[in-house]
């Protein structure tokens, strides 16, 4: 693909963890793009519904075509601009590495991330306790072995990969929100003992400029608290 000629416009909202995925990819790829912030507090305009009839962010305009769904947008960017994020499927190690990354992301999203928002919503220790346990157990069982060779990123990489592009926005919320009382600090403390590979990886992910670049840690925590209070 003639990547250099693509004109990109990202429809986004910096508070959205799904849109955040596209920002991580674009930052790592260092490709120029235009940005249009979509106000999610008001109904979508007719104009935006033409871009994405589901009314969700992110959407990516590529020349005159629209791509929606954060995983699809991120995979498109990684394929269109070959880089350290993921090998091409035609590379000798491509199919296997891509399958391993896909499995890691699927595991993170299906086994671990599902507890994040219930945990944030929990109001009593009785509600919180089983969710903490469930999250820690899932990390120890499912993710810890997959991060045994993290370096500090997935599969021995010293740079972000597509695995971090697709999970980083959720990792940074888990890792930084204890400061704001949204996630219990005990979960991080327990993970540092029981899942050291995961903890080192999560720390490196949360500290990475492509992950924390557009993330307003305090602002998103405040907005999340306000949404919960409603
Ligand atoms: N599956 C979608 C989820 C995107 C999504 O849920 N975006 C939220 C913001 S975080 C949104 O646009 N919500 C609009 C609304 O609920 O009105 C993706 O991965 O892109």
UniProtKB/TrEMBL annotation:
<feature type="domain" description="GST N-terminal">
    <location>
        <begin position="6"/>
        <end position="85"/>
    </location>
</feature>
<dbReference type="InterPro" id="IPR004045">
    <property type="entry name" value="Glutathione_S-Trfase_N"/>
</dbReference>
<feature type="domain" description="GST C-terminal">
    <location>
        <begin position="94"/>
        <end position="230"/>
    </location>
</feature>
<dbReference type="InterPro" id="IPR010987">
    <property type="entry name" value="Glutathione-S-Trfase_C-like"/>
</dbReference>
<comment type="similarity">
    <text>Belongs to the GST superfamily.</text>
</comment>
<dbReference type="InterPro" id="IPR036282">
    <property type="entry name" value="Glutathione-S-Trfase_C_sf"/>
</dbReference>
<dbReference type="InterPro" id="IPR050983">
    <property type="entry name" value="GST_Omega/HSP26"/>
</dbReference>
<dbReference type="Pfam" id="PF13409">
    <property type="entry name" value="GST_N_2"/>
</dbReference>
<dbReference type="InterPro" id="IPR036249">
    <property type="entry name" value="Thioredoxin-like_sf"/>
</dbReference>
<dbReference type="InterPro" id="IPR040079">
    <property type="entry name" value="Glutathione_S-Trfase"/>
</dbReference>
<protein>
    <recommendedName>
        <fullName>GST N-terminal domain-containing protein</fullName>
    </recommendedName>
</protein>
<dbReference type="GO" id="GO:0005737">
    <property type="term" value="C:cytoplasm"/>
</dbReference>
């Amino acid at each position: 693909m003639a990547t250099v000629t693509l004109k990109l416009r990202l429809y986004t909202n910096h508070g959205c963890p799904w849109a955040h995925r596209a920002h991580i990819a674009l930052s790592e790829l260092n490709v120029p793009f235009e940005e249009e912030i979509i106000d999610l507090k008001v109904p979508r305009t007719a104009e935006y519904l033409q871009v994405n009839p589901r009314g969700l962010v992110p959407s990516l305009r590529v020349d005159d075509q629209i791509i929606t769904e954060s995983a699809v947008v991120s995979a498109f960017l990684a394929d269109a601009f070959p880089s350290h994020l993921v090998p091409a499927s035609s590379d000798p190690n491509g199919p296997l590495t891509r399958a391993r990354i896909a499995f890691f992301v699927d595991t993170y999203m299906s086994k671990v991330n599902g507890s994040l928002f219930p945990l944030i919503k929990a109001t009593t220790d009785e509600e919180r306790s089983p969710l903490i346990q469930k999250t820690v157990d899932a990390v120890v069982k499912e993710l810890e072995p997959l991060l045994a060779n993290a370096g500090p990123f997935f599969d021995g990489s010293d740079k972000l990969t597509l695995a971090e592009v697709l999970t980083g926005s959720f990792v940074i919320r888990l890792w930084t929100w204890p400061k704001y009382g949204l996630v219990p600090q005990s979960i991080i403390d327990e993970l540092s003992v029981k899942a050291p590979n995961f903890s080192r990886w999560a720390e490196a992910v949360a500290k990475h400029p492509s992950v924390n670049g557009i993330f307003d840690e305090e602002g998103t925590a405040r907005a999340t608290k306000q949404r919960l209070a409603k």
